[in-house]
Amino acid sequence: MVHTVIVPGVGGSDKTHWQSWLENQLQHRTRVQQQNWNKPILKQWVKELIKVLEATDDQIQIVAHSFGCLTSLAALNEAPELAQKVKKLILVAPANPKRFGANGFATDSIGDYQSYFYGLKAPVPTTMLISEDDPWFAFDEVNALAAAWKIKPINLGKVGHINVASGFGPFPEIFNYIISEKKHAVINKPDIKKLFFKFAF
Q1: Is residue 155 classed as helix, strand or coil in its secondary structure?
Q2: Angle of the 67-78 helix axis to the 42-55 helix axis, nearest 10
Q3: Any residues with CB less than 8 A from the CB of 100 and at least 6 apart, and which?
Q4: Rg (Cα) of the chain, in Å, rounded?
Q5: pLDDT score of 23 more than 80
């Protein structure tokens, strides 16, 4: 069984956001919680995500959005032993690391996280979904970040930041990229015996 860990970005993905919609579609899932959704202190956010990953016994897939994408990649690089539990990482509209720094936003910090994140690697199978007109991350810049992470991103077109503001409440297309919870049908032993009787002659 694969357990889905949902990692929101700044603001926490309210009830109308596609991450909240996805959470309601899944049985086996955990949503990471942060102390302050409007103050993205990377060190604190990474700590909370690592707690969730360590507490989950099943194999994991991470579905992250915006700053949650940066949090996820930083956590897997900070705690590389957890990578063996993570079957897949799905990054949706990652945030631009140059907009953030040690105190949260780069405007409140000395310097930013651009060089730090360009130096990281994706240690697990990763899918990145991007937009041509994301207002928070220019198309050429997000492609450059993907290249630094050695990921070939999937361009969804002109879909903004892939959030509520750009029309993403329900997001059924996400199921094209995540590992399904559905189990394959299994024939039990009595059924097999019936089949043998039916076709033995």
Answers
A1: strand
A2: 70
A3: 40, 42, 67, 70, 106, 109, 112, 113
A4: 19
A5: yes
